[in-house]
Design the sequence.
């Protein structure tokens, strides 16, 4: 390891240097001093980040979450009565769609690994896949941050990560995966919609319904 | 999971990670009141999403991700109005002046760089975990971390810090 490589590693995380980097710091006076300064800065950073947590906030946040569910249960009971009166279709409509929910699970639990494991993808392949599915991906969707393919729900999905005006969003293009109707899901602080397209379907996962609606609108109007 | 078991597991996770989650929210929002809103809303979402959590070992990263989503969702509501000059918001530190300087330097970082640095320092996450939470590539996270530390080094001359400590 040379001094440049060492300093790159130290800027990335001076507290998690590998043996080779530590050995270099031990044998190079300049890099040893650099590491000492970097660790001192980390100590100052640690100190500064430890802002006091407002007293009682943890308990308030915990109770609010748990109590909200109790309110939800009362609401569910009321909804059950309404169901008996003939409003059941509204509840069925709210149920998480399994494919949309799988899209959220993919983003939360698998997306990072999929990005790490993926080989560089050709954007032209993505455009071809979009044509196969029957959608277009206009620039107004946002900035393409990642394009690749990955296994998803028993098929191969074309995986797109976008930076939109409303935040990060994930698209999964599913050629050949036909759907009878649109489905939605909400979980893990994310929302998802799966929509049928001419040659398959599209899953959109984002952290707000506003973002989802905007992307769906753009895809629909393209 | 039965509700009582879910309640206990959730409470344990909140107890274990709440301080870091609040501090993460605080430094994202740069404002105590907005951070309180963000972290409370995030915990409500976490509670609702708890039954779908597959791997409780990953709960810390999951909670940080929800806080980050909630911060982004809050958008203009979580306006970055710097309120850290409030003495109540100063970190517990043997060197408060240093904490003020570091806090100021943190606020001057780009949002992308600050988010990555906070996840690494407060959460102890790897680049892969940070890239997952922020929805970007591992390479981008490495770039953000490097830029963040370069900027902090430029802003906070370490030789000054040594002199302060000696004094």
Sequence:
């Amino acid at each position: 390891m040379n001094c440049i490589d060492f300093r790159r590693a130290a800027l990335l995380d001076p507290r998690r240097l590998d043996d080779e980097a530590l050995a270099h710091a031990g044998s190079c006076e300049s890099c040893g001093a650099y590491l000492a300064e970097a660790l001192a800065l980390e100590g100052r950073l640690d100190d500064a980040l430890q802002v006091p947590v407002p007293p009682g906030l943890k308990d308030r946040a915990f109770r609010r979450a748990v109590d909200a569910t109790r309110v939800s249960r009362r609401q569910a009971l009321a909804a059950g009565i309404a169901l008996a009166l003939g409003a059941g279709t509204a509840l069925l409509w709210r149920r998480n769609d399994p494919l949309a929910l799988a899209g959220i699970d993919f983003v939360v639990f698998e997306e990072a690994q999929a990005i790490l494991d993926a080989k560089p993808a050709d954007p032209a392949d993505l455009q071809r896949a979009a044509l196969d599915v029957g959608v277009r991906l206009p620039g107004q969707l946002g900035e393409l941050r990642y394009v690749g393919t990955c296994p998803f729900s028993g098929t191969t999905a074309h995986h797109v990560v976008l930076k939109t005006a409303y935040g990060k969003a994930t698209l999964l293009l599913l050629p050949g995966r036909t759907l009878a109707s649109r489905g939605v899901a909400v979980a893990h602080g994310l929302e998802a919609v799966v929509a049928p397209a001419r040659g398959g379907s599209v899953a959109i996962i984002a952290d707000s319904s506003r973002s989802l609606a905007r992307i769906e609108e753009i895809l629909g109007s393209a | 999971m039965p509700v009582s078991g879910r309640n206990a597991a959730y409470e344990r996770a909140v107890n274990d990670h709440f301080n870091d989650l609040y501090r993460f929210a605080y430094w994202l929002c740069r404002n105590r009141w907005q951070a309180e809103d963000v972290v409370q809303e995030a915990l409500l979402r976490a509670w609702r999403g708890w039954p779908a959590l597959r791997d409780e070992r990953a709960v810390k990263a999951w909670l940080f991700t929800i806080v980050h989503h909630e911060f982004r969702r809050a958008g203009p509501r979580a306006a970055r109005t710097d309120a850290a000059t409030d003495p109540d918001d100063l970190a517990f530190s043997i060197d408060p002046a240093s904490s003020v300087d570091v806090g100021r330097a943190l606020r001057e970082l780009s949002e992308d760089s600050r988010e990555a640095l906070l996840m690494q320092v407060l959460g102890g996450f790897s680049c892969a975990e940070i890239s997952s939470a922020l929805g970007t590539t591992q390479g981008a996270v490495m770039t953000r971390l490097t830029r963040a530390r370069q900027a902090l080094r430029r802003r906070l001359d370490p030789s000054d810090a040594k002199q302060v400590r000696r004094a």
User: Anything to note?
Assistant: The CA atoms of residues 14 and 43 of chain B lie 8 Å apart. Chain B touches chain A through 77 residues (CB under 8 Å). DSSP finds eight helices and no strands in chain B.
